[in-house]
């Protein structure tokens, strides 16, 4: 259980997919990649982002030399630790078999190293599949820098992995209630905090105010940053905020996007958290792999 904090709630813990221990420095990719292949480890990822997880808790790392003595085409360098290079490779096989799990299922149970490796692998391999042609001239692009760049074969343009910023905001009343909403496609009684993509020319704080107004029709104040988490589905970076709204203001859920929005008490959220993923009658929370779960944990166990 989260230890109560004072002076403004914070995230309940480090976001699950923000954990990482490997060295990701650019110099490794540019000049040291070939030296990191011998003696390295590689994880195989299928087209749906699944990989083999051993004992339900750790990634199945294979020796890189099982695939040859030099980096194989398509392999991307994830980083290095204690002189060992970690790589990822897309495989054609269907991972729908025993022991293969995706990031949503396994991210919360992996240790810091494996969580960071799989998060990076899913995002980086997905980017390569969507950046095979130049956005400027349309010519084919080739991989470079151990998978961290693509170079156009036509105009020599360089392209790097994309990240799309998205705000995610826990709206509360400044006391003991939090505003949660649900999308029509979610499981019954599943509620979460509000989120939306940052638009061109927009600050993060402006995005928070706009998205909350668009989704539930209320103004917010006291916008405060909490933390961030990569969310490679396919390439988001979730930027967590808290904000305050007037609980007496009418809620106007966005048609087709928000099925329902409701205020919940701190006691209700605590009970749902204590139910360990099952939820309680009327409230199921987002999975623990999400930053939303950490935000709700921090708020629920805060003492005003």
Explain this structure to me?
With 304 residues, the protein is of the alpha+beta class. The chain folds into 2 domains: 17-130, Alpha-Beta Complex (Nucleoside Triphosphate Pyrophosphohydrolase), CATH 3.90.79; 163-300, Nucleoside Triphosphate Pyrophosphohydrolase. The chain contains 6 helices and 16 strands. The protein has helices spanning 26-36, 103-106, 112-130, 204-216, 266-274, 291-300, and strands spanning 41-45, 51-54, 58-59, 62-63, 76-81, 84-90, 100-101, 141-144, 149-152, 158-159, 164-172, 177-182, 194-197, 221-231, 236-244, 260-265. The strands form 4 sheets. Strands 11, 12, 13, 14, 15 and 16 form a 6-stranded mixed beta sheet that branches. Strand 14 (221-231) and strand 15 (236-244) form a beta hairpin. Helix 5 (266-274) crosses helix 6 (291-300).
């Amino acid at each position: 259980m989260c230890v109560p904090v004072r002076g403004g709630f914070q995230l309940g813990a480090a976001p699950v997919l923000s954990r990482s221990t490997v060295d990701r420095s650019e110099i490794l990719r540019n000049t040291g990649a070939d030296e990191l292949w011998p003696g390295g480890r590689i994880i195989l990822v299928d087209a749906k982002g699944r990989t083999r997880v051993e004992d339900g808790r750790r990634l199945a790392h294979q020796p890189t030399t099982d695939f040859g003595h030099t980096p194989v085409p398509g392999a991307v360098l994830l980083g290095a630790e204690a002189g060992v290079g970690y790589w990822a490779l897309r495989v054609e096989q269907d991972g729908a078999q025993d022991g293969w799990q995706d990031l949503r299922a396994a991210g919360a149970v992996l240790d810091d190293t494996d969580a960071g490796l799989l998060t990076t692998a899913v995002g980086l391999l997905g980017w390569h599949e969507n950046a095979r042609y130049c956005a400027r001239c349309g010519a084919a692009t080739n991989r470079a820098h151990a998978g961290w760049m693509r170079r156009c074969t036509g105009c020599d343009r360089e392209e790097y992995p994309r990240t799309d910023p998205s705000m995610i905001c826990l709206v509360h009343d400044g006391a003991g209630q939090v505003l949660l909403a649900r999308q029509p496609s979610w499981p019954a009684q599943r509620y979460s905090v509000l989120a939306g993509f940052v638009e061109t020319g927009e600050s993060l704080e402006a995005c928070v105010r706009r998205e909350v107004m668009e989704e539930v029709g209320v103004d917010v104040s006291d916008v405060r940053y909490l933390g961030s988490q990569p969310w490679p589905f396919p390439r988001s970076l979730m930027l967590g905020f808290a904000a305050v709204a007037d609980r007496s203001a009418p809620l106007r859920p966005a048609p087709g996007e928000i099925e329902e929005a409701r205020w919940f008490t701190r006691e209700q959220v605590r009970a749902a958290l204590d139910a360990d993923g099952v939820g309680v009658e009327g409230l199921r929370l987002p999975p623990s792999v999400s930053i939303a779960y950490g935000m709700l944990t921090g708020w629920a166990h805060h003492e005003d």
